[in-house]
Amino acid sequence: MPPLALRGLVTKVGVMNKTATVVVSRWAVHKLTGKRMERTKKYLTHDEENKLRKDDLVVIRNCPPVSKLKRFKLETVLRSPETERALRAQEQPKAPEPRQSPEPQQSPEPQQ
């Protein structure tokens, strides 16, 4: 099989060890109507380090069979919402405490 790299979205992870399900979408044109249709296909992907999370955008590449249904391995993680959320939380500066206005100084009244 020639080298094939596909870009897809992780939909299922954690059920099987070192395996994730990646959905790859493509557009096809209907022969009669000429309308565009979205076609999707699921691929079982080998994830050696178990680092994938749900909703990650990844690139997978074909490889020799790892198991009966696994024919792709993880190449790169393009975008991960979980790690982006963690990075944003670290980057946000803590809100400064509201400044208290200085109390007006009262001059002491002369005693008689």
Automatic annotation (TrEMBL):
In terms of InterPro entries, this protein maps to:
NA-bd_OB-fold, Ribosomal_uS17
Q: Name one GO biological process term.
A: translation
Q: Which domain of life is it from?
A: Eukaryota
Q: Where is the composition biased (Pro residues)?
A: 99-112
Q: Which Pfam families match?
A: Ribosomal_S17 (PF00366)
GO molecular function per UniProt: structural constituent of ribosome
One GO cellular component term, please give it: ribonucleoprotein complex
Q: Per the record, which residues fall in region Disordered?
A: 78-112
Please verify whether the record's keywords include tRNA processing.
no
Q: What keywords appear on the UniProt entry?
A: Ribonucleoprotein, Ribosomal protein
Residue ranges crossing the lipid bilayer per the database entry:
none
- Answer yes or no on keyword Ribosomal protein: yes
Q: Where is the composition biased (Basic and acidic residues)?
A: 78-88
What family classification does the UniProt entry report for this protein? Belongs to the universal ribosomal protein uS17 family.
In Swiss-Prot or TrEMBL terms, this protein is called: 30S ribosomal protein S17, chloroplastic
Q: Which organism is it from?
A: Mycena alexandri
* Taxonomic lineage of the native organism: Eukaryota, Fungi, Dikarya, Basidiomycota, Agaricomycotina
